[in-house]
Design brief:
Largest sheet: 2 strands, antiparallel
Order of helices and strands: HEHHEHEHHEHHHHHHEEH
Strand content: 5-15%
Shape: elongated
Number of strands: 6
Radius of gyration: 31 Å
Strand order of the largest sheet: 1-2
Structural class: mainly alpha
Distance between the termini: 102 Å
Length: 342
């Protein structure tokens, strides 16, 4: 009996302890992320606890051996992981995951927007892709940007794809977008705008009108040149999108499919039937393609245009008012036949 006890104490028990240590080591330091869900994306905000993370891991079957993960995290003092966007790979161990969450070793995310009606719309679009809220983003976007002061602010943020940290501050995001706009406006492009008699901010204002006037990439440069021709001749732009914008400044919910004659006399600084030259600022956040349509507008002599019912989305151009009246009557007849009165 004594011999048996000696064997158990001297051989079996140490072997068992070694087995437990080995198993525990494997559990903590060997690859523990399920290959079937890897790479696994994890978003951690300021209210997320390690218990929340563990519960999510269990629900999504992330860990091959979940035993010991929470114990290890608690042992290391990890109660609240650092906020961020994390990507777990198949080769990571429980210890590696805990260290990553403790140190905040996150991966950047790609955010994008193609266009925006205004700064509120821009803030809303980006807030859905980031940890920060839309109100904080809106306040950051309203900060004064050199060259884009006041009503020109819409032009300070160029639609594009950006790589940022998911938990970046609103101020950081706004600055990132602004610096991209600064880079876009190289010396060559500033010179291009100057040759057209425009500052970058004015080019952005015109680009926003062009963008709202036409959705067709091959129509926009011709539309841009027509407006440039009008500016050069001292004519009013008479752009219908600016009338719609003026209407919606006082009635945001208005649906305007057709601009009426009475609308043309609206006394608003954005109504280019009422004011001379460009309005105070952009009527939307202009796209890069619309900006390039202005800067690279091809030469032509047209000074009148009207929507073309024979080519939906495109315009019919004219060099004189008589030709314009022909196009205008055709478009009016098209609208009336479809009972589009507003």
């Amino acid at each position: 009996m004594r011999k048996l006890i000696i064997i158990i104490v001297g051989v079996v028990l140490p072997t068992f302890l070694i087995f437990l240590v080995f198993k525990g080591y494997n559990m903590l330091f060997e690859a523990n992320v399920n290959e079937q869900v890897a790479p696994y994306t994890l978003y951690v905000d300021e209210e997320t606890t390690i218990d929340d993370v563990y519960a999510q891991f269990l629900e999504d079957n992330v860990l091959l051996s979940p035993e010991g993960f929470l114990l290890l995290a608690n042992k290391k003092g990890l109660t609240a992981p650092k906020p961020g966007h994390y990507v777990l790979t198949a080769g990571q161990s429980s210890n590696g995951i805990v260290n990553t969450l403790m140190a905040g070793f996150q991966e950047p995310v790609r955010i994008q927007f193609n266009s925006a009606e205004n700064l509120e719309d821009l803030a809303g679009q980006l807030a859905s892709q980031l940890m920060t809220d839309s109100l904080s983003l809106l306040e950051a976007f309203k900060e004064t940007r050199i060259g884009w002061e006041g009503a020109s602010t819409f032009g300070a943020y160029l639609p594009d794809t950006y790589e940022v940290y998911w938990n970046a501050s609103a101020a950081t995001i706004a600055e990132k977008l602004y610096q991209n706009t600064v880079r876009f406006w190289s010396e060559d492009r500033i010179a291009q705008a100057a040759a057209l008699g425009l500052t970058p901010a004015e080019a952005s204002t015109l680009a926003s009108i062009v963008m709202k006037e036409s959705s067709k990439s091959d129509d926009r440069p011709r539309v841009a040149r027509l407006y440039l021709n009008r500016l050069e001749k001292g004519m009013k732009l008479q752009a219908d999108p600016t009338v719609i914008y003026a209407i919606k400044r006082t009635n945001p919910g208005a649906k305007v499919r057709r601009v009426l004659k009475k609308d043309l006399s609206i006394q608003d600084p954005y109504n280019t039937y009422y004011v001379n030259g460009l309005p105070p600022g952009p009527i939307c956040v202009p796209e890069k393609a619309a900006l390039l349509a202005v800067l690279n507008a091809p030469e032509h002599d047209y000074i009148f245009m009207c929507a073309n019912p024979d080519q939906p989305g495109y315009h019919a151009f004219a060099k004189n008012y008589a030709g314009h009246l022909v196009n205008q009557r055709k478009w009016t007849r098209y609208l009336n036949e479809r009972k589009i009165y507003r």
